[in-house]
Every structure is written in structure tokens, then in C-alpha cells.
Write the C-alpha cells for this entry.
Amino acid sequence: IIDDLHSNEPIKKESTNVQLISRDAQSLNIDINSMLNELNNAWHHYEMKVKEIITRWETEKEKILSKILNEHSKLDSILIREEELEGRKIIGLITDEEYNTLKVKINEEKKIIENKIRELVDYIIFFEKGLSLHRRRLNLMLKQEDLDTLNKKLADLESAKEKSIISNITYEKLKREIIFQINLLKEIYRMLD
């Protein structure tokens, strides 16, 4: 019994247990480290894809905003035609029958353009909603940057007018376009929140 107490066997067992724990820890460390590397690579790939999609979307969104602005200009000219039509009717330059025919045609044109504008705005909302989660994940909220860019364009326009680089007509036209884009983006972002 005394020999058993002084024997090295329990120490060997303890040492073996430590070695087993150490091997298990190393194996776990290798497994976790491998998983972390895999996760980091996946995250990097995800981050790059999101940034690529956002960049492509921002370019596409500018084109869509330009189309909306173009359609809005068409709508403005139709509204002017509509006012002229009302004026012609009031002063008796056209008959009620001519007025009604032209009024129906103008309303149809307005409806087509309004639907096109709504469709383009819905398209922007759809993609902004789809990207919003990914932007939040990467903390890439671009809303304020979009508005800041447009506000800078507006300030640059003001500066160009003050320096007489552009005419008042050009200034007014571009100002309306920029303000329209600012208001449209605000409306879109309000709908997203």
C-alpha cells in the first residue's frame, strides 16, 4: 500500500488527463479557428457583394430618378395644355364636344404618365427595401449621403447663378429638378421607414 502511495501512477494518469485536455483544446482551437476563418471569408465575400450591388443600384437609381424627372416634365406640359384647353372653352374658342374629346385625351395621357411615374417610384422603393437590411448589416446607410449630395448640387447651382455662370432660366429649371429629386427621395425614404 505504501508503495502504491509513492507510486508515480496517479501522477501519470493526471499527466495523461492534462495531455488529453490539451489535445482536445488544440483540436477545438483548430476547429474553431478554421470555422472563424471560414466565417471571415464568407463575411468578406458578402460585404464585397453588397457593396457591388449597392454601387450598381446607385447608378441605376440615378437613371430612374432622371426618367421620373423626364416624365414629370411631360406631366407639367400636359397640365399646361389642360389649362389652355380650359381657357379656350371659357372664352368660346372650342365647342363643348371638342372640349370633351380633348379633355378625355388629356386625362388619358396624364393617367399613363402618372402610372409610369408611380411604377418607377415603386421600383425604387422595392430595391431600397431589399437593400436596407444589407445596408444596416454593413452600416452603409446612404440616405443622408444621397440628400447631402443633392443639397450640395443645389448649393453649387446657387453659386453658379450668383457668379452669372448660368442664366436665370437655366437656374430655375435645374433648381426645380434638384428640388424635385430631393422631395422624391425624402418621400421614398419616408415610405421605407
In short: The mean pLDDT is 82.
